[in-house]
Structure prediction request, 220 residues.
Amino acid sequence: MIILCANEKGGVGKTTTAINLGVAYALAGLEVCLVDTDIQGSATAWQRERSAASITPRITVCNMNGRMGQDLIAMANKFDLVIVDAGGRDAIEIRQSALVCDLWLIPMAASHVEMWALKTALELCQSIEEQIGKAPRATVLINKVHPLPTIQDSNELADAINSDELLSKYLPVCPARLCERLSYVRSLGAGQSVIEYEPNGKARAEIESLVAYISAEFAA
Ligand SMILES: Nc1ncnc2c1ncn2[C@@H]1O[C@H](COP(=O)(O)OP(=O)(O)O)[C@@H](O)[C@H]1O
Ligand SMILES: [Mg+2]
Prediction:
C-alpha cells in the first residue's frame, strides 16, 4: 500500500503525519518505508536522530525525485507500507505519487486561508481522472486544530469543504483530525513519534484514530 502525504503548502504537517503514521504502522508489525522527496529532508533528518538513539522499530527512509512512479511501485512490492512525504514544491513527485498511491492524505492547517490552496490538489485529481479515468482517492486531514472544544474553526472549515461540490467530491474531509500539541513538535526532535514520546497522550489517540480510519477504508 502507498500513502502520499502532500500539499503545496508548507508547514501544514505533511512530515509530521508521514512519520507518525509510519511509526504507528511499524509498531503494529508492518515493514514501513518512508519516501522523502523533499530537498529539506526533514524525514531523513528525523530518521538519523532515531538511528542515533537506537530506537526501534526501525523505519527505512529513502529519497526519491523526478519520475519516480515505477520506483514507488517497486518499493511497495518490498514493503508492507510506503509513505511518501512530499515537499510543497515537488510538483513532479506529487503527480507521480498521486498516480500510483492508494490514498492521498492532504494535511492542512485548520484555517480558512489554507482552503484556497486546495485548488492545486483539486486540479491534479481532475487531471489524473482525465488521464487514467480514475481520480486518486484523496482526503483532507485537518491538522493543528485548537484543542479547546469551544473553538469551532475546524468544524466550520470541514463544513465549508464538505459543502463545496467539487472539493467534497474529490477531497472529502477525513473524520480524524489532529490538534495543535507540543508533543507533535517535541517527539520529532527526539527521533520519535507521539506514540513513543507520550504513550498516554492525546496526540497518540489522534494518530490511532487516523490509523483506524485508514485501516477501515481499506478493509472495506
Ligand atoms: N499537530 C501539530 N501540533 C503542533 N505542531 C505541529 C503539528 N503538526 C505540525 N506541527 C509543527 O509545524 C511545523 C511544520 O510541520 P511539518 O510536519 O514539518 O510540515 P510540512 O512537512 O507540511 O512542511 C513543525 O514545526 C511541526 O513540528
Ligand atoms: Mg515536510
In short: The pocket of magnesium ion (ligand 2) is lined by residues 14-15, 38, 42, 85 (CB under 6 Å). The first helix runs from residue 14 to 27.
